[in-house]
Amino acid sequence: MKRPILVVALMLSMGIVFTSCRDTAKEKESEEMEMSDDMEDAMDDVEDEMEDMEDEMDDVNDNNNTVRDDLDQAASDVEDAVNEAARETSSGAKKAANEAEEGIKKAADEAKSGVNQAAKETGDALKKAGDEIKGEFKKSDDN
């Protein structure tokens, strides 16, 4: 009789051990599933962070490109302004040179006209003086 009781006790003990092991295995599997879910969540968070970082880097690159484009445009504007100023300065210098040349020509023409007028007046005065001298000689010959 001891033997059947021992066999029943052994079977009960083995059943408890297997049940306990099965429950432990289920708990471990459940914990592993939770850990796996936590790992997936963590990986999703990391992926989200990486995407955010990529978006921020894209924004930085876009800003850098915008700044570069703005600097290029500003340099182009400065170059255009310098070229325009050079054209205006050249045009102003040419205009001033032309005006000076015209002034010099006008002054030369006026001087030439003045000299010619003075020469004519001198010639007329000499002719008049010569005529007066001839008239005086004729008066003295007549007397």
TrEMBL record:
Q: Is Signal among the key words of this record? A: yes
Bias-annotated ranges (Basic and acidic residues):
96-112, 121-143
State the superkingdom. Bacteria
Residue ranges of the region described as Disordered: 49-143
| Keyword annotations of the record | Signal
Keyword Signal among UniProt keywords: yes
Bias-annotated ranges (Acidic residues):
49-61
- In the UniProt record, the signal sequence range is 1-19
- This protein is called Late embryogenesis abundant protein
Starting at the broadest rank, the lineage of the source organism is: Bacteria, Pseudomonadati, Bacteroidota, Flavobacteriia, Flavobacteriales
